[in-house]
User: Which sequence fits this backbone?
């Protein structure tokens, strides 16, 4: 296999993705830069294990599903020594020539320890997706990300795993979806590992086929209230409070600070702020520009934290709508018009939640709802 003089090992973590797994193996077998292909079947029940048992030249790990992170850990441990690791989730088809391009970028850009692909730019239409990586990666095609480790499809230096692994504590040792990637980003931030993300490539990514299976096994959709995802987000926020997510997909142009009074009034004000800002985002020409924002809660009162924390924790994968104290998760419609985050701010102040470039507006909840939604109460509506 490898002809580059560098040891590059591919680690695939797959759950019920046999058709794409076959393509992954075919592409990586022909890649002269790959030294070893390691496949972790993370509890697959679609014939993956039977197919793997018949394959030669692969390192295979058949295990129970205890989540993506623990599965990736098994692959890292099996890899032993290497210079670089190429990570792939089970539903993503690697681009032909991609290993060479990613290696070239990391060897030319010493400040970066990880090069990942932007998940939002991956293509879920099989026929439209790219099959080959056509051009070298230029520095202007990348940005630094501190919120995600991008281990769905990325290349990492060996130093990224020197004493570091995905968490296997608590809910991270349970089958489920979500925030393994976010939590690894927190570990890397703490260790000084730098993640760069390339934005102008479009590989195929299968929409999560494991969601339905997890629903069948648990009765709860993986991104729904009460799911492992929710428990993992809670766990992560409790263990990494210094890396509050803020806006994941862009810097806000407006920060709305809601001053906390009683829980009911504050909840109504936060809901109203989100509705107004989402309308501002969706009004024409919403498809032509992007206006992310923060809604920040500042202050405290009895019962406030108990109400606010779950809403805060559920924000990180898209805008959440609050209706009659119930959470409505994003769907295709509001995913495409995603805008901002709801943040709880320390009682000491709110400036740490605001970007310097953003306009900051403070709303007193007692006045906001009594005066309804006049321009004077809501200066950001203009």
Assistant:
């Amino acid at each position: 296999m490898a002809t580059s003089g560098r040891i590059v090992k591919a680690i695939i973590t797959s759950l019920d993705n046999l058709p794409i797994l076959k393509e992954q193996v075919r592409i990586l077998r022909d890649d002269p830069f790959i030294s070893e292909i390691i496949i972790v079947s993370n509890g697959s029940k679609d014939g993956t294990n039977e197919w793997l048992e018949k394959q030669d030249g692969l390192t295979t790990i058949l295990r129970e599903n205890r989540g993506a992170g623990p599965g990736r850990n098994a692959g890292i441990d099996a890899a032993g020594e290497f210079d670089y690791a190429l990570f792939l989730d089970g539903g993503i088809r690697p681009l032909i020539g991609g290993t060479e391009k990613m290696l070239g970028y990391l060897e030319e850009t010493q400040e970066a320890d990880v090069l990942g692909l932007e998940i939002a730019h991956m293509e879920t239409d099989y026929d439209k997706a790219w099959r080959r990586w056509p051009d070298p990666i230029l520095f202007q095609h990348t940005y630094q990300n501190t919120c995600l480790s991008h281990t769905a499809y990325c290349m990492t230096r060996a130093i990224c795993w020197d004493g570091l692994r995905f968490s296997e504590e608590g809910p991270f040792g349970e089958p489920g979806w979500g925030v393994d990637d976010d939590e690894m980003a927190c570990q890397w931030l703490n260790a000084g590992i730098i993640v760069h993300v390339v934005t102008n490539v479009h590989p195929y990514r299968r929409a999560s086929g494991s969601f339905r299976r997890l629903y069948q096994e648990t009765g709860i959709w993986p991104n729904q209230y009460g799911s492992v995802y929710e428990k993992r987000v809670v766990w992560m926020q409790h263990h990494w409070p210094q890396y509050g997510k803020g806006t994941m997909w862009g810097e806000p142009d407006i920060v709305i600070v809601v001053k906390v009074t009683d829980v009911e009034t504050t909840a109504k004000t936060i809901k109203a702020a989100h509705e107004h800002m989402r309308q501002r985002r969706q009004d024409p020409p919403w498809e032509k520009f992007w206006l992310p924002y923060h809604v920040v809660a500042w202050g405290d009162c009895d019962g406030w934290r108990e109400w606010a924390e779950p809403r805060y924790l559920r924000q990180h994968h898209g805008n959440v709508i609050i209706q009659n104290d119930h959470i409505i998760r994003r769907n295709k419609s509001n995913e495409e018009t995603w805008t901002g985050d709801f943040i709880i701010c320390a009682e000491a102040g709110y400036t740490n939640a605001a970007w310097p470039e953003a306009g900051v507006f403070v709303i007193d909840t007692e006045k906001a709802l009594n005066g309804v939604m006049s321009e004077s109460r809501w200066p950001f509506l203009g």
Summary: The chain has two domains: 8-241, 254-381. The chain has eleven helices and 14 strands. Confidence is low (pLDDT under 50) at residues 245-250, 284-290, 314-339, 371-382. The two ends are 61 Å apart (CA to CA).
